[in-house]
Amino acid sequence: MRRTLALGVGLAALYISVLAATMVATGRPVRPLFDGLTPPPPYQWVTPPPGHGFNVKPHRSEASLPLTAAGSGLAGATGVNGQVVLNLPDRAIPPHAADSAVQVRFTPLDPDRLAPLPTGLVPDGNAYEIRMWYRPSGLPITDLTVAGNVILSTPEPASVLVFSADGHSWRTIETQRVGGPDAVGGPFGRAGHYVAAIPGRRPVPPARPASWLVTGRRILIAVLALALAVNLLARARQRRRTQPTRLT
Predict the structure, then answer these.
(1) Which fold has domain 71-199?
(2) Contact at 8 Å (CB) between 207 and 195?
């Protein structure tokens, strides 16, 4: 007991000493053991997994980037509550006529509503559709002159980024961890769909019976119900006929 108490007092004294030293060194009051350790916000799912609990559904967001006669400058755009970050190098987007800006749209999607990922991969979080167009003309921008990079936050440590121009066919792209296990980044050279993935198998939905079989079952149930009703009615009439007549 005395050793435990002494250890507790020693740790408290060490904490106070570090706190005092930090205040002297920085000139401001801080909690050195926790300073700067801000936990990331909860991941926002388009369709949360079963049993996930409370979830804030993400919404589409947009950003506007300036455009000059030389093209776009060094710029970054963040969308969907910071779950998508887009970094563009200088002159990634060429100039276009009298347009003065580039509009970027981030749309979070349920990846299970898109085509299956390459074999052996399952989505880790949402899919994101990234589209760009010139303003004010509205002309869509498909390919960049100089590739930038895209960073996705993930609910679990992801392994790879995959890309699809239309959401129907995917390909893996060069991927690296960014700032921790729950964020991955890769090259961004074209508008389209991006999703982080981990090894695994996509669950196979249960097979649904053919439409003709469902219709046949419904007809059979209806016929049986009608036959039962007719049988009950016939029995009721028979009972009434066989009941003896009361004499008054």
Answers:
(1) Chondroitinase Ac; Chain A, domain 3 (2.60.220)
(2) no
Residue ranges of the chain that CATH labels 2.60.220.30: 71-199
Q: For residue 114, give both structure tokens.
A: 């898109």
The CA distance from 86 to 62, in Å, is: 12
Task: Name residue 23's amino acid.
Answer: M
Nearest-angstrom CA–CA distance, 97 and 90:
18
**Does an H or E element contain 198, and which?**
strand 192-199
Per-residue pLDDT of the chain (248 residues; tens, 9 = 90+): 544 444 444 544 444 444 444 444 444 444 444 444 456 689 999 999 998 889 999 999 999 999 999 999 999 999 999 999 999 999 999 999 999 999 999 999 999 999 999 999 999 999 999 999 999 999 999 999 999 999 999 999 988 999 999 989 999 999 998 887 889 999 999 999 999 999 986 544 445 555 565 566 667 676 666 666 666 667 667 766 666 655 55
- Contact between 97 and 71 (Cβ < 8 Å): no
Query: Which structure tokens are listed for 25?
Result: 């060194």
Residue 242 burial class via C-beta count within 10 angstroms: exposed 0-12, middle 13-18, buried 19 and up: exposed
